[in-house]
Amino acid sequence: MGEWIGKDRKARRCYGFDEIALVPGDVTVNPNEVETTWQLGKIKFKVPIIAAAMDGVVDVKFAIEFGKLGGFAVLNLEGVQTRYENPNQVLDKIAKATPQKATELVQSLYTKPIKEKLIEKRIKEIKKADVPAVVSAIPQRAEHFGEIAQKAGADIFVVQSTVTTVKHLTKEYKVLDFSKLCKKMRIPVIVGNTCSYKTALELMDTGIDALLVGIGPGAACTTRGVLGIGVPQVTATADCAAARDFYFKRKGRYISIITDGGMSRGGEICKAFASGADAVMVGSAFARAKEAPGRGYHWGMATPHANLPRGTRIHVGTTGTLKEILYGPAKLDDGSQNLMGALTTSMGSLGAKDIKEMNLVEIIIAPSIQTEGKVFQQAQRIGMGK
Fold this sequence. Notes:
Elements (H helix, E strand, L loop, with lengths): L2 E4 L2 E3 L8 E4 L14 E3 L2 E3 L3 E3 L8 H9 L5 E3 L3 H4 L3 H10 L2 H11 L6 H13 L5 E4 L1 H14 L3 E5 L17 H7 L4 E6 L2 H8 L5 E4 L9 H4 L6 H19 L4 E5 L5 H9 L4 E4 L1 H4 L9 E3 L13 E3 L6 H6 L11 H12 L4 H4 L3 E4 L9 H6 L6
Helix pairs in contact: 1-5, 3-4, 5-6, 8-10, 11-14
């Protein structure tokens, strides 16, 4: 499998969202009657789209609003919300910084120590609104922060890093034992990120409840440029979904696959589900909401890295309310609003009654799918030509 790229060296061809299309079958379904619900642990969610744990996307107010709309947003326990009593002042500074100074400013602002009391406070603020409280931490702090989060009432805990493996080699610090963590946690644990079949299987064996898939595809992420690593999301999702299905047949335990990053429009989200996802995690699309804390700006989780930033601050603008972005009515013509409407309409057009059937629709390789017949849109920079 693969093509020769040099003497004795092969490379596998992989695919991203722009290179494929979904093929309608011989049955269509009323979009109002398709089922988008997915389950994590004992909790069911009507919305299979998750707001990413990024400081320009999620704060307490945003998490509450998102929860009321039927899904959940992930609060970053290592961002400005847990470092500052009044994060709004910090967010104002980041929004006002010039492009040349933004990364340096973010690096300096994230040097302030994380306050454990603020972790408890933020979780309790979300829980007070009677919506799911979902929080994230990096592996090095996961065991300690997981314990704090669980005691404070968190419903789901996310462990997230650029690349996550069970076998992490280091002499510098203690390696997180995922199996030990999952046994200690009484709430569902989501782990990521990865993009390969073998690693997905190994992580599933530790007792996790869901797996984040995606290395570097995010709009504000520069990992692929800085480190040269990553796998296009269609292939990454399909590979990890295959691991999920094999694991379920072997162990009888279902581990949800969450495609993370690379999606800002409805069509890309639909293609992620067709590739095998149970849910998707989105950042930039929600950073454009009026309720988002970034003031129209969005920055990567690794932007504040002290020595090698792998994210940047981008301007995405503010285009509508969270409800409009999630449920419409859409005021823009580019697929960035009414994401749930796009998903249900796509499912109906494909004849998929639920997410599991959406995982099985026909996919074709179609490199011209984004450009065929779109010359006027491209010339006028509207619709698919933006």
